[in-house]
Amino acid sequence: ATGNWPLSTWFTARGVPGHLLARHPWNRRSATTSLAENIDGMPEDDDLNYPLLGLLLLQRHTKAFTTTHLAGLWLDELPAGRAFTAERVAYRNLLLGLTPPHTALHRNPFREWIGALIRADIHGWTHPGNPAAGAEQAHRDATLTHTANGVYGAMFIAATIAEAAAGTTDVHQCLRTGLTVVPPKSRLSQAVRYGINAATKASGASFDTVVDDLHAAYGHHHWVHVLPNAALIAAALTHADGDFTGSICRAVSGGWDTDSNGATAGSVAGLLAGSPGALPTRWTDPLRNRLATSVAGLDGIGFDTLAHLTHTEALRR
């Protein structure tokens, strides 16, 4: 109704017929901060708290951190009300006195969902050109909350990003590199390959056909499970050939865990673009170089500052 399909820019409520808004109302919390007409800085998102926590982890404990270090940091710095699914269960388990890896195992039905993958970016950013080390670091992070494919998803993304952070401009090479760090017979590897193959077969065709294929194959999973979302991220990056706008819009338009998938696709595609100046200003200008967060001491921090701090940790041994 707003002329924004296929997706190419921010969502807007302007021009949407009243009966559609009544039937499909915007999320009440995010509508005031996340529509094109009212974005003024990056609003808080629970997923974006984790790269900030990851940065604090590296600053305090270096790349030699342990999963126990991460657990302590969460108890100190992560508000319990900002944790969900596997992260909330692990947080509860910490309060019960459990230690990693039991925090991921005890009464945790979400342990193969997407949460650990969401947290993996900083481990790739801080290991440019060393995907194996990025994946190993992501493993230490992920095992606080996840097992098996939930952990493999984090390792895959960390390695993919580490390859892109080294200056690689070929998204397909980055995805192939990401797959080298996970068991080839795992369901995570199979899902990523399925997404890549579906997108490759549909090259030149609408991404809608890819989404239909993925939902037919993986739609029986919960929408926050790692398998459908990893397949969709890989498909979006493949079909868009790593283009920034094309990648994030495809990832979001595919459904499932949209904020997470758009961010992860953008993390990879942003590196492929080569510099902040290469990103379209319609994406960067509304964010005002300002990030809202409930992580103490970091609310309102600039993306340029975060990039500098992350680069410092990438150089630190």
Offer a few descriptive terms:
single chain, 317 residues, mainly alpha, ADP-ribosylglycohydrolase fold
In short:
By secondary structure, this protein is mainly α.
* Number of helices in the DSSP assignment: 18
CATH 2nd-level architecture: Orthogonal Bundle
**Assigned CATH superfamily:** ADP-ribosylation/Crystallin J1
Structural class: mainly alpha
- The tally of strands reads 0
Order of helices and strands: HHHHHHHHHHHHHHHHHH
Low-confidence stretches: none
Provide the gyration radius in Å: 19 Å
First and last CA, distance: 52 Å
Q: What is the CATH T-level topology? A: ADP-ribosylglycohydrolase fold
Helix content: 55-70%
Instruction: Report the principal-axis shape.
Output: globular
Q: Quick one: CATH class? A: Mainly Alpha
Q: Main beta sheet: strand number and arrangement?
A: none
Mean pLDDT: 96
Number of domains: 1
Percent in strands: under 5%
Outline the structure in words.
With 317 residues, the protein is mainly alpha-helical. The protein has one domain: ADP-ribosylation/Crystallin J1 (ADP-ribosylglycohydrolase fold, Orthogonal Bundle), CATH 1.10.4080. It is 57% helix and 0% strand. The chain starts with 17 loop residues before the first helix and ends with a helix. The mean pLDDT is 96.
